[in-house]
Design a protein that fits this description.
It is an enzyme of class 1 (oxidoreductase). One of its GO terms (biological process) is glycine decarboxylation via glycine cleavage system. The protein has about 475 residues and is an alpha/beta fold. It is about 35% helix and about 10% strand. It has 16 helices and twelve strands. It is globular and about 75 Å long. Helix 6 crosses helix 7 (about 165-175) and helix 12 (about 320-360) packs across helix 15 (about 425-445). It folds into two domains: about 80-335, Aspartate Aminotransferase, domain 2; about 340-470, Aspartate Aminotransferase, domain 1, CATH 3.90.1150.10. It has helices at about 5, 45-55, 80-85, 85-90, 100-120, 130-150, 165-175, 190-195, 220-230, 250-255, 260-265, 320-360, 380-385, 390-395, 425-445, 465-470, and strands at about 125, 155-160, 175-180, 200-205, 235-240, 255-260, 280, 295, 305, 375, 405, 415-420.
């Protein structure tokens, strides 16, 4: 397809953009461009075609099966967008008086009540802009807690070897040392390794449950108690909350603080560079460390922002991405208590349905049952046929399916990680199971052809190493400017 600059024709223009309603201002000469800005000039028709072509070249949930394990790519109900577009929500400004945004502040307080109930927490902040940002915020709160108690020797965060890569990265950014603990034969935390790792220098544990291989750790209460007994705090990575929301609460498992991936669990837009939202909830012992501008209802019955006693300060400009919160809250209120639990139960049902449809051929490293996602290993397939997990993923593109997560978690060799979510139909899952089984058989019949897939997509097999090491990220103009 052509780039927008390649569609450009000198002299063409659009005239449908209205005149500016902002007073003009003449910049001082030292700030004025010395040459014209190189922008494409296209007709409205060509501009429309360009963006339509881009949309057609992009695969999304609206196009087909998208079982991206650990990332929960599920349908976003359109009512979420409708509510977020209410004029009272979309036309606000962060600098306007608090008295004029009472409905928006009430939305914050209502969201805190619902998310606290779902997660077993006492308070929430909606400032963090994404999941990893939520991790960082929660770790800063843990750090502030220990510092206030004069427990400055607690410098280490314990993280399982199957954790998301953002966990150790966030802990390192917060100034902690990382201590990895091994997984046992079931893919869960090795209790002996955990007991050996904790001590007077333990600040906390970062853990998601269900874990990264899709298993609910039956020892979770013992795990969190081990950390508490050592004087540390327990942090819950909300990446896999979609499997348990409305059924089991992180707070009841012994966690003191939690971040939520709103896009994974509560149906807000996923990816694309944002804006996003990574709310952080906490038990009462951490409430005083929440970021500044904490929304609450005053004794007079009005809504206002407050400053927690020992706040870690602002972690985001103003108060967070409000329109994303309205989408998530709409989803929660639309489903209600029964719908929330039904959603997670259906996600678990769907994952187990697919797992049982594939386990007779594909190797399943961690048992025949899972929560909301499961991991397949193609280690034996690669050894027998030289067809790798990447080859299978590329072949899936020819079946109008998005590949699952590849090579994660790293404790599983040649891993494919599938998460069908609760919003897929049985028909779609049956078709996907059949494709996976056909590709398995084809690998043993004629594995060599897998190195040529995909064959029917917009572009064929790409040189991914070159794309990663030598990316072309800007348009190269000729000297004439064409």
């Amino acid at each position: 397809m052509k780039l927008i600059f390649e569609r450009s024709i000198e002299g063409y223009e659009n005239d449908w953009i209205g005149s500016s309603d902002v007073p003009s201002y003449n910049l001082p000469n030292q700030f004025v461009r010395q040459q014209d800005l190189k922008l494409p000039t296209v007709s409205q028709n060509e501009l429309s075609r360009h963006y339509t072509e881009l949309a057609k070249a992009t695969f999304g949930v609206n196009d087909g099966f998208y079982p991206l394990g650990s990332c929960t790519m599920k349908y976003n109900p359109k009512i979420n967008d409708e509510v977020a577009s209410f004029s009272g929500f979309k036309e606000i400004h962060p600098l306007q008086p608090v008295s004029s945004i009472q409905g928006c502040l009430e939305t914050y307080v209502l969201a805190e009540r619902w998310f606290s109930e779902i997660n077993g927490m006492d308070a929430f902040t909606f400032q963090p802009a994404a999941g990893a940002h939520g991790e960082f915020t929660a770790l800063l709160m843990i750090k502030a807690y220990h510092q206030k108690n004069g427990d400055t020797k607690r410098t280490k965060i314990i993280i399982p070897d199957s954790a998301h890569g953002t966990n150790p990265a966030s802990a390192a950014m917060a100034g902690f040392e990382i201590v990895n603990v091994a997984s046992d034969q079931n893919g869960c935390v090795d209790l002996a390794a955990l007991k050996a790792a904790v001590g007077e220098d333990t600040a906390g544990l970062m853990l998601t449950n269900p874990n990264t291989v899709g298993i609910f750790d039956k020892n979770i209460l013992e795990i969190t108690d081990i950390v508490h007994q050592a004087g540390g705090l327990n942090y819950y990575d909300g990446a896999n909350l979609n499997a348990i929301m409305g059924v089991v609460r992180p707070g009841d498992m012994g966690f003191d603080v939690v971040h939520l991936n709103i896009h994974k669990t509560f149906s807000t837009p996923h990816g694309g560079g944002g804006p996003g939202l990574g709310p952080v909830g906490c038990k009462g012992l951490l409430k005083e460390f929440l970021p500044d501008h904490y929304p609450l209802m005053t004794e007079e019955g009005q809504f206002d922002f407050s400053t927690p006693k020992s706040t870690i300060g602002m972690v985001k400009g103003f108060y967070g991405h409000f329109s994303i919160l309205t989408r998530a809250l709409t989803y929660v209120l639309m489903l209600g208590a029964e719908g929330i639990s039904a959603s997670s139960k259906t996600a678990v049902l769907h994952a187990n349905y697919m797992l049982n449809g594939l386990k007779d051929k594909y190797e399943v490293p961690y048992g025949s049952h899972c929560m909301h996602e499961f991991v397949l290993s193609l280690e034996k397939v690669k050894k027998d046929t030289d067809v790798s997990a990447l080859d299978i993923a590329k072949a899936l593109l020819d079946y109008q399916m998005h590949p699952p997560t590849m090579y994660f978690p790293m404790i599983v060799p040649e891993a494919l990680m599938l998460e069908p979510t609760e919003t897929e139909s049985k028909k779609t899952m049956d078709e996907a199971i059949q494709v996976y089984l056909e590709l398995y058989d084809l690998a043993y019949e004629n594995g060599e052809q897998f190195h040529e897939f995909p064959k029917n997509t917009l572009v064929g097999r790409l040189d991914e190493v070159k794309a990663a090491r030598s990316p072309i990220v800007r348009y190269q103009f000729t000297e004439s400017g064409d």
